[in-house]
Amino acid sequence: MTQPRYQTSSSLTTMTPNIWDVVVLIIVLGILAGIAYGTSQMSLPYQVGEPIKISLDPRALPGYALSSVLRMFIAMFFSLLITFSIAPLAAKNKHAEKFLIPFIDIMQTVPVLGMLSITVVGFIHLFPNSILGPECAAIFAIFTSQVWNMILSLYQSLRTLPHELKEVANMYHLSAWQKFWKVEVPYGTQSLIWNTMVAMSAGWFFVVLSEAIEVSKQNITLPGIGSYIDKAITEADLTALGYAIVAMLIIILIYDQLLFRPLLCWAEKFHSEIDEETAMHESWFFDLLAKTRLLKTTSIIFTKFSDWFVNGYKKLIPARPMEIPARVKQTISATTVVCWNALLTASLILTCIALVLLIHEEVTLKEVVHVMFLGLLTSIKVIVLIILASAIWIPIGVWIGLRPKVTLIVQPIIQFLSAFPANIFYPLFVLVILRYNLNQNIWTMPLMILGTQWYILFNVISGTSSIPKDIRWAVKNFGVRGQLWWRKMILPGIFPHYVTGAMAAAGGCWNASIVAEYVEWGNYKIISAGLGQYITQYTLEGDFPRIALGIGVMCIYVLLFNHLIWQKLYSLAEERFTMES
Amino acid sequence: MALIKIENVSKSFISAEKQELLVLDAINFQLQEGEIVSLLGKSGSGKSTLLRLIAGLIKPSAGNLYYRDRPIVGPALGIAMVFQSFALLPWLSVLENVEIGLEAMGVERKERRKRALKAIDTIGLDGFESAYPKELSGGMRQRVGFARALVIEPDILLMDEPFSALDILTTDNLRSDLLDLWNSKRTKIKGILCVTHDIEEAILMANRIVIFASDPGTIQDIIEVKLPYPRDPESPAFRELLDQIYMTMTTSERTRVAKAKAQAATSPQAEQTEKHPEYAYRLPVVDISELTGLVEAMEDHEIAGLIDLPELAESLHLDVNNIFPLTEVLDMLRFAKITEGALAFTEAGKKFANADILERKQIFAQHLVQYIPLAQHIRQVLDLSPSHRTHEDTFLNELENYFSEEESERILRTIIDWGRYAEILAYNYDSGELSLENPQ
Lengths: 581, 440
Prior knowledge:
The structure holds two protein chains of two kinds. Chain A is an all-alpha fold.
């Protein structure tokens, strides 16, 4: 059972924070603040005639679902496009790498909703009085929830490409283009598909938010399942919400069965360790396809196409490229490096000035301190939630992991649950809280981890089942039981897996806090104090400097968490608790 | 015209401490048309580096390399390489793997397929065209490696320990097939260069054997093999060559150890100030249990006070990479003396061989501190430090002045291992600290 684990940011495992993180952080914050400032000057009413009416009739749902899926796939297409262009750049050019990797690391922590609120006005301006503006904004939001993880995945694969494969590519004269498609991309395919699956789940979470945009007192609705859910929530229609949940289940089931399962099956041939046995993925749909004549024909066409794609250019370009003298080459690259560094330095200085001015003019220092405090509040929530979720799921996960038969049944279910956008269920919690008059600050907390707790469970299960049987038997043979068994065997044994899962869960918590600290149901609002609530509130009011401030502070907290806690735990796990060697 | 001409080639790498580490020093060599040359040496003697220089995968620090009188600036068309780890692309079928070189040359799809199938046929892989590498055994995988090289009709075939990942039977089979192919002249290959650490293999295949000495890598001797193919390892002429090569290689070991000993013998105070302190010696990575195992086996092979090295190596199934590090350590510790092609126990060695576990540890500890400068050095630093503990990084940094990061790590791991066995020092993995105390 060596299923790939869910990964959060793969860069965390290899990257040690350095001066570049700080530089990039400041620049990113500056850009965000700049956009925010710019858009606040624009403040225009958005008009595209009559707002689109969303019907709560369940018969309208398939249509809505389809448009949401379409948005999802457009975003996925762009994510792949960007992944294939940015990842090689970062992996091959060390100057680009120095900037890009911290940049992606930071962009990962920028809450997607905040991104949406900042960019939507810009997109509306780009396509004035057209639905295309908000449409692009929605797709862009989904895109930002997917792309970073995918870039990091491919980047990581490119960086870890075995040396001998590189030598083969050089020895047999593969061009850079051929090497990329024949050697490098195949090497990264499996991990990229896994990360795309995880990215898809993240995307669904934000589909629900990005289709019904409530920004700066504007209400923009796009036809889609997200808007349907939004309408159901505003009208407090529990039946409609039920329909939406069922529709969502069906969508996820379909794309899991028809797209990702077959893809995983197919990707097994890209497994890079020749000798290592992996869990065979099974897919009825893949088996079915494999039997059809259609697939054979398509695969022949595909082979021809890929041959043309990878090798075809050779006919157009003469075999030997023009030799550029080494001297000229050196001068060009040296000049580029100098320009690049100058550009970075200039933007660093400019953004520093801009940030100081913005904070000075728009918000008081007192408010900054207040936001910092809110951030602390949310971090405490995240920590408490991770501890609670671990206390619940570790024993259950271990129980399941020790029983292979149960594991086989449970694991796909958990994967399915983790793909489900948890925010659909938030209203149900609201109902319970209202009904029993519970403390809002405490009882909204579980919402934050609702969607991401599965990462912990999933990894604990796979960790437990990957403890070698020999060790388990040996320990049993010596009569190790009870507390000793937990302390000396299970907990250290699952530690590396657990850390990966908890890291993913915590990351998800931060992102969910924006939604979970400000939940609505009909006319009721459930608000709990925290950074997420702060960002949401000012997003609704359209106060851009404050949105930027909130997002900036959240970035800083998440980065601190990642580098001070998770990275340390991760290297500890690598060094001390890994089973191999 | 020589196929490959190497003139005064040196290669050095820059260490983490910004020091230049010389791997190959002033190599001169020519590969002539129609010959197979084996490059023989221990690991770390730079023979694989030389192969990669010829392949154009890396660039020399000094000197010139020529392929048919044209300077080698990058991988040249006409030179193909077979890798130790096969280096097949797991996501491509056998056929696609073989085609890869042709694809890079821009050969048409149909033509590509035709030529690849022919190469697969030649190397005896028919029936496996559509298989993926993971379905194949090691021997079959290396056949794919050969087919991939043959299909581009190379002039020169470079082989980097092509058989060392295979078992004996598979190796014999594949090697004789390769020699048949070579002798039948069915390919366009004009010369073969093969890196190996197996002496017998070198004699079985080569017309000439280039023996490398290490630290830095230099050519110590070139031996011509005039035996007719197929060669019989049991024949007297073969045995004679084997002995001769062992002798040459032990001579190189002896001069190296002698140099180290001479250095240790001169006043240590003066040495410290010099660029190369005595502790900066490339300790062979040797496991204590292997060492004691060897000492016990040596007793059984002792005839009239001498132990025949080729015979010992053969009976224990040890190749160059295994036997020479062990004998080197025995020599350094003054447990045995290496004479030409043979070993002899010293008095202390004899005592060590016959001692029980605890006595052995005592003898080992005594000799370790006395004769291994690095052990001496670490012990001194620990003694002088007020808390009697020092972080491993201190020693690693010192070593990195003279060796690569990896090599330094390996050397320190080895000395820690020996020191722990001898109970002259303690090491804490979690904190990375070396100390004098015993673990609680």
